[in-house]
From TrEMBL:
Its EC number is 2.3.1.-. Keywords: Acyltransferase, Repeat, Transferase. One of its GO terms (molecular function) is acyltransferase activity. This is Acyltransferase. Signal peptide: none annotated. CDD domains: LbH_WxcM_N_like. It is an enzyme of class 2 (transferase). InterPro entries: Hexapep, Hexapep_transf_CS, Trans_hexapeptide_repeat, Trimer_LpxA-like_sf. Belongs to the transferase hexapeptide repeat family. It holds the Pfam family Hexapep.
């Protein structure tokens, strides 16, 4: 389902529109979105990104232009998630607050990575497949592992 309040730039490609869930978000020109993707309200996705299938991008995430997001990547937007509030009643939007996350231009996030909230993935950075990103990733860093840690620099790895 693509809700009426979704803003799509020119040339956005959404594969199998009946198998995605987009609402209240904006997607920049030339971006491609795979099947079984959910993008929630308030999310901003830049131009010429690739969002691979089975990915979940929650409220509070900003993805700049030229970013690659692999298959089954999950973003989190709450530090202390819960089903009920302190009174034992179902939580509402008043019981929690969104913690923003930013993915800077030309970063790449490998398949099955989990990105916790309140952090920035730097320009041109590379997050390894299956990584759990728990803190900021510097520009051009290569991070991998659980928790993710810096293991290299993309500028020294390209062409080697």
């Amino acid at each position: 389902m693509i809700a009426d309040d979704v803003q799509l730039g020119e040339g956005v490609v959404i594969y199998h529109k009946d198998l995605v869930n987009l609402y209240g978000c904006s997607v920049g020109a030339g971006t491609r979105i795979g099947t079984f993707v959910e993008i929630q309200k308030g999310v901003e996705i830049g131009e010429h990104c690739k969002i691979s299938s089975h990915t979940f991008i929650c409220e509070g995430v900003c993805i700049e232009s030229g970013v690659f997001v692999g298959h089954s990547v999950v973003f989190i937007n709450d530090v202390y998630p819960g089903a009920v509030n302190a009174s034992g009643e179902l939580q509402t939007e008043l019981d929690w607050s969104v913690v923003p996350t930013r993915v800077k231009t030309q970063a790449s996030i490998g398949s099955n990575a989990t990105v916790l909230c309140g952090l920035t993935i730097g320009k041109g950075a590379l997050v390894g497949a299956g990584a759990v990103v728990t803190k900021d990733v510097p520009d051009y860093a290569i991070v991998a592992g659980v928790p993710a840690r810096v293991i290299g620099d993309v500028r020294t790895k390209k062409g080697s």
